[in-house]
């Protein structure tokens, strides 16, 4: 789930449409996003009250009463949780940009192609075990790049992989 403590309003459209995202458990979790804000509100838009909505409202009331009881017993005044989200947003923003070398800088500056990689023109001469090993390596490298959200790198590896797969299929 999202960790957004500053959420003050959560609106669930078509809350009466039963399903995975409108089950009692999902609705309770969705309501929990606004519960971390003192002024948090939840609006469930529906034409009728389903069992899931009724269960959610009952559970929210139960939790609210229990929390108020606990707060009063321990002298706690509710406050909205304040967390910095800017750093995580900036990190996501930075992932959208990568340094792409100019063509004039050549492959050495561009991170280059490893000797024996898919970019070599002699790949069609490789023995089959070497070709399959390079295909497996590129698949692993591509998956790792994608997992690190380095999509440009993953796309380059995908293109190299396709070239080697064409060579393998031609045999």
Overview of this protein structure:
The protein has 171 residues and is mostly helical. The protein is built from six helices and two strands; from the N terminus they run E-H-E-H-H-H-H-H. It has helices at residues 24-35, 51-74, 86-95, 106-109, 128-147, 151-170; strands spanning 9-12, 41-44.
Beta-strand percentage range:
under 5%
| Biggest pleated sheet | 2 strands, parallel
Radius of gyration: 27 Å
Helix-strand topology string: EHEHHHHH
The percent range for helix content is 40-55%
Overall pLDDT, averaged? 80
- Would you identify the regions where 5 or more consecutive residues have pLDDT less than 50? 102-116
- How many helix segments? 6
Strand neighbour order, sheet with most strands:
1-2
Number of strands: 2
- End-to-end distance, in Å? 48 Å
Structural class: mainly alpha
Q: What is the overall silhouette?
A: elongated
Gist of the model:
With 171 residues, the chain is mainly alpha-helical. It has six helices and two strands; from the N terminus they run E-H-E-H-H-H-H-H. The protein is 53% helix and 5% strand.
